[in-house]
Design brief:
- Helix content is about 10%, strand content about 15%.
- It is α+β, with helices and mostly antiparallel strands.
- A two-stranded antiparallel ribbon has the order 1-2.
Length: about 60
Amino acid sequence: MAVPKKKTSKSKRNMRRSHHALSSVKSMECTACGERKLAHHICSKCGDYKGRIVIDIDTKI
């Protein structure tokens, strides 16, 4: 079984983990209703995408 020969220092450990950080979620404002939404997604409040209505939210399924 493989066993480390020497203790990994805090500096080396933290340098290895420097790329593990989570990035924040990018959101933008809907052009039709002003609600916050994810980029390149349909607005869940009004059904708008790129300036046109894609889904009619008012109809019941």
